[in-house]
Recover the amino acids of this structure.
């Protein structure tokens, strides 16, 4: 089959491209740059698509349609919230012959609404963080008690509409009420309502699901071992873990309640004191740590394409537990933060970083049989190439200013 993958500077796009080339498909990757992470992978055709799906959705879709027609693509796989929403909003403007294995727009948006999903998640068996909804900057009051902090300011949706265009917001940790007030004051009116959530003391764990035709065909779970920034963010080092009924049961009930079709990542925190799972968010697209699940034995991209083609797909709930994967340059940034902040032992930070080499853990981007993506990412990290991606979570060199205890690092 001929597969078109968007957002070639995303690590998920690289994992998808490698998977589908290995499965024998013809893969074409679009990116806003002439050289991209996935676009230089072995066996991949690269096409430049400079229009921004956030600020130029109509132009983006028009150009995407031309590429679909020129490549005679059978399946289209958007990689970011921005491209997925643009495709779902303008699905009728794309060739009907191309399959887009995503849920419909209303379901996608329902899952992406971080505030509205909380009551449903609780009804399905998840715990939810203590949450205050802030309707506007003027409505925010200092009546929130000090023991509510540390907390995070979380947009109700990652992609926010402002007039005819959109923009992206990320989660911001806040240590106290004064810091929270400063963050709230910087937000545009269209960003509201925002959620102020008490920080859960726990470790990040995620459930990955391929649900098709009302059935959970593929399941996988992982634990975050290191993140960037330190207070919680992008997974830079993680491992496959056994499926836990306390995570799987509520997760499948939640996707069933949404009527989900396609892949999804249910991101949670497991509270250290009680073992309870708190829902953080649902990602209705391929996720950054996708390569780990493929390495462990659950090839989500290949399975999803088979579903889109109408093939019969066997249930895949078994995989190797204990497989570890590292995003090298993200982990370098993590090490830099730990050394710079001086929290805890610097020797421990260096030891943790080097232990991955001793264990011979798998590199997420760096592969001996496909070396060019790591070379491109290295040049991006050093500043010689610009990723020019719309998803800030996928950028290297994410080194924010923060200071958190070393003990807070999972």
């Amino acid at each position: 089959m001929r597969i078109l993958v968007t957002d070639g500077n995303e690590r998920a796009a690289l994992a998808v491209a490698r998977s589908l080339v290995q499965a024998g498909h013809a893969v074409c990757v679009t990116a806003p740059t002439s050289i991209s992470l996935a676009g230089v992978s072995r066996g991949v055709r690269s096409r430049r698509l400079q229009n921004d799906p956030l600020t130029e959705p109509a132009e983006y879709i028009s150009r995407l349609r031309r590429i679909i027609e020129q490549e005679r693509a059978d399946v289209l796989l958007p990689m970011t919230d921005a491209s997925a929403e643009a495709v779902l909003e303008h699905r009728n403007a794309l060739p009907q012959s191309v399959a887009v294995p995503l849920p419909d727009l209303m379901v996608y948006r329902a899952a992406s609404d971080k505030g509205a999903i909380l009551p449903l998640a609780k009804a399905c068996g998840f715990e939810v963080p203590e949450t205050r909804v802030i309707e506007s900057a003027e409505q925010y009051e200092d009546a929130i008690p000090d023991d509510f902090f540390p907390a995070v300011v979380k947009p109700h949706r990652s992609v926010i509409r402002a007039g005819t265009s959109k923009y992206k917001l990320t989660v911001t940790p806040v240590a106290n009420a004064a810091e929270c007030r400063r963050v709230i004051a910087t937000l545009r009116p269209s960003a509201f309502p925002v959620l102020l959530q008490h920080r859960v003391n726990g470790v990040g764990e995620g459930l990955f699901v391929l649900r098709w035709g009302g059935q959970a065909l593929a399941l996988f779970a992982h634990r975050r071992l290191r993140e960037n920034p330190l207070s919680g963010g992008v997974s830079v080092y993680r491992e496959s873990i056994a499926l836990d009924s306390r995570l799987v049961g509520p997760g499948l009930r939640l996707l069933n309640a949404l009527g989900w079709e396609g892949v999804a990542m249910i991101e949670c925190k497991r509270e250290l004191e009680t073992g309870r799972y708190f829902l953080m968010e649902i990602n209705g697209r391929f996720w950054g740590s996708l390569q780990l699940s493929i390495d462990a034995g659950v090839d989500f991209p290949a399975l999803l394409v088979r579903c889109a083609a109408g093939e019969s797909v066997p249930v895949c709930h078994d995989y190797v537990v204990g497989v570890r994967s590292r995003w090298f340059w993200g982990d370098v940034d993590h090490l830099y933060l730990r050394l710079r902040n001086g929290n805890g032992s610097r020797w421990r930070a260096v030891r943790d970083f080097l232990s991955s080499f001793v264990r011979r853990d798998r590199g997420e981007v760096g592969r001996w049989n496909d070396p060019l993506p790591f070379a491109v990412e290295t040049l991006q990290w050093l500043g010689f190439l610009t990723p020019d991606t719309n998803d800030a979570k996928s950028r290297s060199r994410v080194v924010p200013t923060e200071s958190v205890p070393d003990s807070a690092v999972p």
Notes: Residues 57-71 form the longest helix (15 residues). Confidence is low (pLDDT under 50) at residues 389-410. The radius of gyration is 20 Å. Residues 148 and 198 are 6 Å apart (CA to CA).
